[in-house]
Specification:
single chain; mainly alpha; two-stranded antiparallel sheet; elongated; CBS_dom
C-alpha cells in the first residue's frame, strides 16, 4: 500500500463530508489554474535563460553560430530521451486529445516534467517552435494525475484538463477569454455553465499567477492607433483569402515533411539531417531562430530592418520589394523550419510559429497594397495583427480563439470587425480545403477524434473490448452434425456458432435456425458435417482498424444482430447489436449528464 494512502483517504472522507461536488470542482480548477500558471512561467524563464546565455556571450553576433546551435539543442534532447526518459516526447495537443477520447483522460505522469526539459532545450538553442504546446502538455498531465489521485470521474477529469490548457494559454498570453474559447473549440468541451465557470476560474487564477511572477509585462508592446475604416474591407477579405491559402500550405508542409522524416530508420539520422537543415535555414534567415516574439514586435513597431536581422541581403534593404520578398520568405520557411524541428526530435508547439508566419504574411500584404502604385494606404501594424488571427483561424480551425486572442493580447478590440472578416474567410477556405487539422488528422485515422457532434463523440469514447462477447462455442468444419449437436448446441444457450479451423482462423458461422429442420434426423448425424450448414456472415468487424462509428454503420447496412470480430486475422468473438446499443445509451447518459 502506498505510504500516503491513509493520508489521502482521510482527505477524501473529509471532502465528501464538507465540500459539495460542485464546489470541489471550482476549488480544483483554481488550483489547476495556479499550477498551470507556474508551469508556464517556469518553462518561459528557463528558455529565456538559455537564450540569454548566448546573447550575453555575443555568440549570436556571428551568423555561423546559427548553424551549430540547433544541432546542439536537438542533440541534448536526443541524449535526454535516449538515456533518461527512454520515451520520445509526444506532440502536445494530439496526445492530450487522444487521452481524452481513448484513455479516459489519463495522461502519464512523466509528461509533467518531460516538456519542461526538452522544450527549453529545443527552443533555447534555436529550434523554430513554440513553448505554448509543451506548457499545455505539462499542465494537462499535472491536472490528469491530480484527478486520478482524488478519484475524479472521467468527465470531470476531462474538464480539468481543459482548465489546465486554458490556464497555460491565459498565463502566456494574459488572455483569459481566448483561453476559455480555445478549450471549448479545440478540446470540444460542452459550452455550459457547469464547464464555463471552472474554465473561467482556472484562466483568471493563471493570469494572476503570471502577473505575480512577471509583473504587467506583455508579449506585444502595441496599441491600436489606426481604427478600422470601411474602405479597407476588401483588403481584409484579400488578407483572409491569403491566410486561408497559407494555412493550407502550413498543414500540407507539416504532413509532407513529417512523412519524409518517417522514412529515416533511426532517430539519429533524423537528428543529423534535421539539425543541419535547421542550421542552414537559420544561417540565411535569422528571424526563424526560436519562437519569434521579437520578430513580431519589431513588425508591429515598424522596425522592418531590425525584424529581418543580419542576413546576406542587408545592403539591398533600402529597396522595399527586397524587404517584401524577405518577409514572404519568412512566411514560407517558418512552417518548414518548425516542422523540421519536430521531425528531427525537438519538442514544441505550433501556435506561436503560426503567429509568426501570420504576422509576416499580414505585413507583406499591407506593404504590397501600400507600394503597388495605385494610391492605396493601409495600416501595416493592423494587417500584421490580423494576419496572425487569420492564420490561427485556418491552421487550428478555431476562428473564435483567433479573434479573441489577438484582440486581448494587443488591446485591439477596435479591430473586431476586420478580425472577424479575415478569421472567418481563412477558416472557410481551410475547412473547404482540408477536413482535418494538424491536431486532428492522426486522431481521425485512429477513430479517436472528439468533436462537438455528441453522437460521434459518444461513439469515439466507447471501447470495443467492452462490447465483445467471447463465450461462444467454436465449431470446426469437419465436425459431424452429431458432434456439433453434442459439443455445441447442447452446451450453449446461443443460437449462433463460429466455425474455425484448428489454427483459429475464422471460416464462417452456423445459425441454429439453419439446422433446426434436420437436427433431429439421426440418419444425418454421421454423414453430414458442419461445413454443409456453414454460411458467410454479412460483415466482419476488424479489431485493429474499425472504429465504433464504422461498426455501427456495418450493423446498419448489414441488418445483422451479431457480427464476428477478427483480431490479428484470427477469430476473437462477436459483437451483438443489442449490447452495442445498450452500451451506447449508457455512454450517452454519462456524456450528457
Amino acid at each position: 500500500m502506498p505510504i500516503n494512502s491513509k493520508f489521502f483517504k482521510r482527505i477524501h472522507i473529509w471532502r465528501y463530508k464538507h465540500i459539495s461536488e460542485k464546489n470541489f470542482i471550482f476549488l480544483l480548477s483554481l488550483i489547476i489554474g495556479l499550477l498551470a500558471g507556474i508551469i508556464s512561467v517556469f518553462i518561459k524563464n528557463i528558455t529565456f535563460a538559455i537564450e540569454a546565455i548566448f546573447e550575453k556571450g555575443v555568440i549570436l553576433s556571428e551568423n555561423s553560430i546559427y548553424f551549430i546551435l540547433p544541432i546542439l539543442g536537438l542533440l541534448l534532447v536526443y541524449l535526454f530521451v535516449k538515456y533518461v526518459s527512454k520515451k520520445p516526447s509526444e506532440h502536445a495537443i494530439p496526445s492530450i486529445l487522444f487521452s481524452l477520447s481513448k484513455r479516459d483522460g489519463i495522461i502519464n505522469k512523466r509528461n509533467i516534467y518531460l516538456p519542461l526539459i526538452t522544450a527549453p532545450l529545443t527552443v533555447g538553442f534555436g529550434g523554430s517552435v513554440g513553448l505554448l504546446g509543451p506548457a499545455i502538455a505539462s499542465a494537462s498531465a499535472m491536472s490528469s494525475n491530480i484527478g486520478r489521485l482524488l478519484h475524479i470521474d472521467r468527465k470531470t477529469r476531462s474538464l480539468l484538463i481543459g482548465c489546465a490548457a486554458a490556464g497555460a494559454i491565459a498565463s502566456i498570453f494574459k488572455s483569459p477569454i481566448a483561453a476559455i474559447i480555445f478549450a471549448i473549440e479545440v478540446f470540444s468541451l460542452d459550452l455550459t455553465f457547469a464547464s464555463l465557470l471552472p474554465l473561467l476560474i482556472a484562466s483568471v487564477s493563471s493570469v494572476i499567477t503570471s502577473y505575480f511572477f512577471l509583473g504587467d509585462s506583455v508579449l506585444f508592446n502595441f496599441n491600436v492607433t489606426e481604427k478600422f475604416v470601411i474602405k479597407d474591407t476588401l483588403f481584409y477579405i484579400v488578407l483572409g483569402i491569403g491566410t486561408g491559402i497559407a494555412s493550407i500550405y502550413f498543414s500540407k508542409i507539416y504532413f509532407g515533411i513529417t512523412s519524409l522524416f518517417n522514412r529515416f530508420k533511426s532517430a539519429r539520422q533524423k537528428l543529423i539531417f534535421g539539425g543541419i537543415a535547421i542550421g542552414v535555414m537559420l544561417f540565411f534567415i535569422p528571424p526563424l531562430y526560436g519562437e519569434g516574439f521579437g520578430f513580431i514586435n519589431d513588425l508591429l513597431l515598424g522596425n522592418d530592418i531590425k525584424a529581418l536581422g543580419s542576413n546576406p541581403f542587408e545592403e539591398y534593404l533600402d529597396n522595399i520589394w527586397i524587404v517584401i520578398g524577405l518577409l514572404f520568405g519568412i512566411t514560407i520557411f517558418k512552417a518548414i523550419a518548425m516542422t523540421t524541428t519536430f521531425a528531427a526530435g525537438g519538442t514544441g508547439g505550433i501556435i506561436i510559429p503560426t503567429l509568426v508566419m501570420g504576422s509576416a504574411l499580414g505585413n507583406v500584404v499591407a506593404k504590397v497594397i501600400n507600394n503597388c502604385g495605385l494610391g492605396f494606404s493601409v495600416s501595416e501594424a493592423n494587417f500584421t495583427l490580423i494576419g496572425m488571427a487569420g492564420l490561427i483561424a485556418g491552421v487550428l480551425h478555431a476562428p473564435l480563439t483567433a479573434i479573441f486572442l489577438i484582440a486581448e493580447i494587443t488591446g485591439g478590440y477596435e479591430l473586431f470587425v476586420p478580425l472577424m472578416i479575415t478569421a472567418s474567410m481563412s477558416f472557410i477556405i481551410n475547412k473547404n480545403g482540408l477536413d482535418h487539422t494538424i491536431y486532428t488528422k492522426e486522431l481521425l485515422e485512429k477513430g479517436a477524434l472528439l468533436t462537438q457532434d455528441k453522437d460521434k463523440s459518444v461513439l469515439t469514447l466507447m471501447k470495443l473490448d467492452a462490447v465483445i462477447e467471447t463465450d461462444f462455442i467454436q465449431l470446426h468444419p469437419e465436425m459431424t452434425l452429431g458432434d456439433m449437436l453434442k459439443e455445441g448446441v447442447s452446451k450453449s444457450n446461443r443460437n449462433l456458432f463460429p466455425v474455425t479451423d484448428h489454427e483459429n482462423n475464422f471460416m464462417g458461422i452456423i445459425m441454429l435456425d439453419s439446422i433446426r429442420t434436420v437436427m433431429f434426423d439421426q440418419t444425418l448425424y454421421n454423414s453430414t458435417t458442419v461445413e454443409t450448414f456453414m454460411q458467410k456472415p454479412p460483415e466482419f468487424i476488424h479489431y485493429e482498424n474499425d472504429s465504433m462509428e464504422v461498426i455501427m454503420k456495418k450493423f446498419q447496412s448489414s441488418g445483422a444482430w451479431n457480427l464476428p470480430v477478427i483480431k490479428k486475422n484470427k477469430y476473437y468473438g462477436f459483437v451483438s447489436k443489442s449490447k452495442l446499443l445498450t452500451a451506447y445509451r449508457r455512454e450517452l447518459i454519462n456524456f450528457t449528464s
